[in-house]
Each structure stands twice: as structure tokens, then as C-alpha cells.
Design a protein that fits this description.
The protein is mainly alpha-helical. The chain is built from 8 helices and 2 strands; from the N terminus they run H-H-H-H-H-E-E-H-H-H. The termini are far apart.
């Protein structure tokens, strides 16, 4: 049961209790126990409830939605109440006058969040039907901002993201690695990443790391070795192998080892030694 229904039920109980207390005072009782008054109140409330239910039944039987005085009279007769004694009881000389109850302050209605203006009913919808809900419940509304396609804003956003990433990496390296401070008395203020000394600092500028040449070099070296071995095998298995000059295996292995050492130590293609084209045998 809601709070509003509890409030109305409490007000009805209080009114019925006051009526019971007034009738007891008219009869001659000076005081009464609370339990006895509550019992009489329950009896009177049951009587009124049964009277209303019976009057509604006669109303519906007559095909009406609102009760009339005749319906109440028929309900009283059905319950065994003498209808002729009601006017005399109403005109008694010692009847008590009830003090009207003080109006209760209605509970404030909490304001509801409303988005947009509610749409009124069209002409074919009756007014007693509930109104339309907020427009955002049945009308499509965009809840996200469209991405910007302007060149300047995209460049600014990319620059800010790059700056944030660099700042985050710098702080991470400063916290996990060796740092240097600008102030000798406070080593924690303005930490700087310590510079690692290198005997040949100019090699980093001469040897670019943009292209991964190490991943391509072993494939080329392996292909060259397999090709040379195939040529040597073909030369030994041919009919003119006795007249040809024998292949020097020592110089061949040295050449291969020299090529592999050069490719491992030098990544820059502009600093590698010149490779002359091979001469085909006749």
C-alpha cells in the first residue's frame, strides 16, 4: 500500500473513532477504554462498508454508475435498519456537534525530470486517456557527438594525444629507471631521465632503425648459400668436372662467413661493402 493510501485510511479511522466517542458520550458514558472504543469503531466501519457495497450492487443492477438515495435506502432495508427512525435520530436535542477536522497538508510531489515538450492528444484520441510520455522515449535522439572532420581539430587532437603519451612514458621511465635532478638538495623535484654514455654516439644518427633489415638479410643470405651450393653440385656432377678448375672450399666458407659478419654488424645499406656481380662459367 502506498503512502497516500495509508494517509487516507488513517484519516477515515480517526473520523469514525470520533463519531463512536460522540455517540457513547450522548448515551451517558463519561469515559471508555481504548480497546472498547476500537471494537465499536471496527463494528461501525464494517457497517458502513457493507452499506456501501450493497448500495453499489443496487446501482449496478439498475444499469447506473453513480448511486442515488433510493439505492442507499434499499441497502438499509436489506440490512434490517428502520429507515423511518433516521429523521428522528437526526433531529435529537442532545446530538454532538463534530469539530471539522483540520485539513492535512498534502505531501509535496517530487518534480520529475522532463525532456522536451509533451505532445497533446490528436482529435481522434479522447482526453480521458493518459497523456503521451516524454518525446525522448519514442522519438530517436542522438546521444553521442558526431566526430569532427576538420583538419585543424584532428591535428590538434593528434598532437595532444602524442604529447600525453610522451609525458606518460617519460614519467614511467623516470620512476622505473635511473634519473637525474636539477637540484642537488632535492632529488625528487623535477626528475630527468639519466643519459646513458655511449663511446660512439654518432652511430645512432648514421644507422637508422626505421626499416628492419635484419629480418630480410638472413633470407637473402640463405638463398645465396643454397644457390652457390647448387652450382657447385652441378659442376661436380657434370661430364666436364675433371677439366674444370676445382672449387676452393676454404675460400668459399670464408666468403660466406665474411658476408654474414658484414650483414650482422652493419645495418645501413649505404655503409656496406660493394658486392661485385658474379661471373658465369663458360
Amino acid at each position: 500500500m502506498s503512502l497516500e493510501a495509508d494517509t487516507h485510511a488513517s484519516s477515515r479511522r480517526k473520523a469514525v473513532k470520533v463519531a463512536v466517542a460522540a455517540l457513547c458520550y450522548e448515551v451517558g458514558f463519561g469515559e471508555a477504554e481504548d480497546m472498547a472504543v476500537e471494537t465499536l469503531r471496527e463494528m461501525l466501519q464494517s457497517f458502513l462498508t457493507e452499506l456501501g457495497r450493497s448500495a453499489r450492487g443496487y446501482t449496478e443492477l439498475a444499469g447506473r454508475t453513480e448511486s442515488m438515495l433510493s439505492d442507499v435506502v434499499m441497502a438499509l432495508v436489506d440490512m434490517g435498519v428502520k429507515v423511518d427512525a433516521i429523521p428522528a435520530h437526526a433531529k435529537r436535542f442532545n446530538k454532538s456537534i463534530f469539530i471539522p477536522p483540520t485539513p492535512s497538508t498534502p505531501s509535496p510531489t517530487l518534480p520529475t525530470l522532463q525532456t522536451g515538450e509533451k505532445k497533446a492528444h490528436p482529435s481522434h484520441i479522447p482526453d480521458f486517456l493518459p497523456p503521451f510520455p516524454d518525446p525522448h522515449t519514442y522519438i530517436r535522439t542522438l546521444t553521442h557527438k558526431q566526430p569532427s572532420n576538420e583538419y585543424q581539430l584532428i591535428r590538434e587532437k593528434a598532437a595532444s594525444q602524442k604529447r600525453d603519451v610522451e609525458r606518460a612514458l617519460t614519467r614511467f621511465i623516470a620512476k622505473t629507471g635511473e634519473t637525474q635532478s636539477l637540484f642537488s638538495d632535492d632529488m625528487t623535484a623535477y626528475p630527468l631521465i639519466a643519459v646513458k654514455p655511449s663511446p660512439r654516439a654518432y652511430l645512432n644518427a648514421l644507422l637508422p632503425k626505421d626499416q628492419d633489415l635484419d629480418a630480410q638479410e638472413p633470407v637473402e643470405t640463405q638463398q645465396a648459400v643454397s644457390k652457390r651450393q647448387r652450382e657447385a653440385r652441378d659442376g661436380q656432377s657434370g661430364p666436364d668436372t675433371q677439366t674444370d678448375t676445382p672449387v676452393d672450399s676454404t675460400s668459399f666458407s670464408q666468403l660466406l662467413s665474411q658476408d654474414s659478419v658484414d650483414s650482422d654488424t652493419i645495418d645501413n645499406p649505404y655503409l656496406r661493402p660493394v658486392k661485385f656481380p658474379k661471373k658465369r662459367r663458360r
